[in-house]
Write a structure and sequence with these properties.
Elements (H helix, E strand, L loop, with lengths): L9 H12 L2 H5 L1 H7 L3 H29 L3 H8 L4 H36 L5 H7 L4 H20 L1 H29 L4 H9 L9 H13 L7 H7 L7 H32 L14 H15 L3 H35 L4 H21 L1 H31 L2 H9 L9 H26 L1
Keywords: Membrane, Transmembrane, Transmembrane helix, Transport
Subcellular location: Membrane
Pfam family, one: SNF
């Protein structure tokens, strides 16, 4: 069997894991939730719940992965002799592959809009229209391009692929976001956006809908439940202090979400100042794909020649955010095939990428029926149940002394730390209960 890869540095792991967590949802979902849920009051609740809910589950994945030095299927299989462990791991591989199948379509749209912005001055009108037409041909071409880019990075393995590109892409992501924030903040209307984002409405802090929305954002923004953090944890050095490195990953993810809000919300109010509609029929701010592909491009068109540069930078930012998440998703099934099935990494990447592209093509050809359905099945049903299962494995199935022994490899005094006094019972009782409440609410 081939020697397993390992992250060569602490910063390499943090940037790779944070890149996995920092996806398109942070940039187009979090900001509008903030503005629609009491501004800074939502940010405060989100911060509290990110560490009260998401961080303990993140730690469960990291500890399981590093302890067993294996993919999701084998790691959960080693915790229990019951076949349920491997079955849960397989469900995680299938779920993350289906998520990547629709995510690759959206990632392809980001590349298409980036290409359109880049070539607009020199390309024909017909070509630029094709870039953003959402036609079968453009969807297939750019989805394939996005998966090819993701596969190229994963093909390099942990050190030469995932880590190498994460330490390049994540700083670039921050620089582009900060540059856009500075530019947007000086535009007419931006001050109203800053007020909507930062001025708290504390009367809404105890609103049940706000609490549930903040819980969901905190949990799902870190891409928990589908094995990405577990697999990345399996590539981590035994010398690393897991609680502190997990906290660093959570802080970077939270930081990117908050910084994204500093860009998106002021930009939306600049668009409103320029005569672009930013509110949906129900009075809430437009979010999701309509925000990214309708509102913001319309804004870029209203700010003259500099709008083209802003558009190029913005969609470059979106492509980077999409790729840093997709490489972690692809690595989950690739790690399973290369380790459990003893296939060479190149062959594993090819098999998984082609399978996922086939699933993406099926969604593209049946878009109105399958796109929303696959998103619902994976993110609303499968992902929370897998997160619940991981808490059960870490809190109830895996022996507590074995967990402590793993943590003491890097932190000999772990049993005397506050983390160990709280985390074991917290992930055993509190996290599963909260996840079930979230799941029940999303279903009902």
């Amino acid at each position: 069997m081939a020697i397993r890869g390992e992250f060569s540095s602490r910063i390499g792991f943090i940037l790779a894991a944070a890149g996995s967590a920092v996806g398109l949802g942070n940039i187009w979902g979090f900001p509008t939730q903030v503005a629609s849920n009491g501004g800074a009051a939502f940010v405060l609740v989100y911060l509290l719940l990110a560490f009260a809910l998401a961080y303990p589950v993140l730690m469960a994945e990291l500890v399981i992965g590093r302890a067993h030095r294996a993919n999701m299927v084998d790691s959960l299989g080693k915790i229990t002799s019951n076949p349920l462990g491997r079955l849960t791991g397989l469900c995680g591989c299938v779920t993350v592959s289906l998520i990547l199948a629709f995510y690759a379509i959206v990632g392809g749209w980001m590349i298409a809009y980036f290409a359109e912005s880049l070539t607009r001055p020199v390309a024909s009108a017909a070509l630029n229209e094709w870039f953003t037409s959402y036609s079968l041909s453009s969807n297939l071409v750019f989805c394939a391009l996005f998966l090819s880019l993701t596969s190229y990075i994963v093909l390099g393995g942990v050190k030469a692929g995932i880590e190498r590109w994460s330490v390049r892409l994540m700083p670039t992501l921050f620089i582009l976001m900060l540059a856009l924030i500075v530019y947007v903040s000086f535009q007419p209307g931006a001050s109203e956006g800053w007020a909507a984002y930062l001025v708290p409405d504390f009367s809404r802090v105890l609103n049940p809908d706000l609490l549930i929305d903040a819980m969901g954002q905190a949990f799902f923004s870190m891409s928990l439940g589908v094995g990405t953090m577990l697999v990345y944890g399996s590539y981590m050095s035994k010398k690393e202090d897991l609680p502190s490195i997990g906290a660093a990953v959570a802080l970077v993810d939270i930081g990117v979400a908050i910084i994204a809000g500093m860009l998106i919300i002021p930009a939306m109010y600049v668009a409103l100042n320029n005569g672009i509609e930013i509110f949906a029929a129900n009075g809430e701010l437009i979010a999701g794909d309509q925000l990214i592909f309708t509102v913001l491009p319309a804004l870029f068109d209203t700010i003259g020649p500099v709008g083209l540069i802003v558009s190029i930078v913005f969609f470059a930012l979106m492509v980077i955010a999409a790729v840093t998440s997709s490489i972690s998703m692809l690595e989950v099934p690739v790690a399973y095939l290369s380790e459990s099935r003893n296939l060479p990494r190149r062959q594993s990447v090819l098999i998984v990428a082609l399978t996922i592209f086939a699933a993406s093509a099926l969604i593209i050809f049946n878009f109105s029926t399958l796109f929303g359905l696959v998103i619902t099945l994976t993110t609303k049903y499968s992902q929370p149940l897998l997160g619940f299962a991981l808490c059960i494995f870490a809190g109830w199935v895996w022996k507590r002394n074995d967990i402590l022994a793993e943590l003491k490899l890097s932190t000999p005094d772990m049993e005397h730390r506050l983390f160990w006094r709280i985390w074991p019972w917290y992930v055993k009782f509190v996290c599963p209960l909260v996840i079930l409440i979230m799941f029940f609410r999303s279903v009902v």
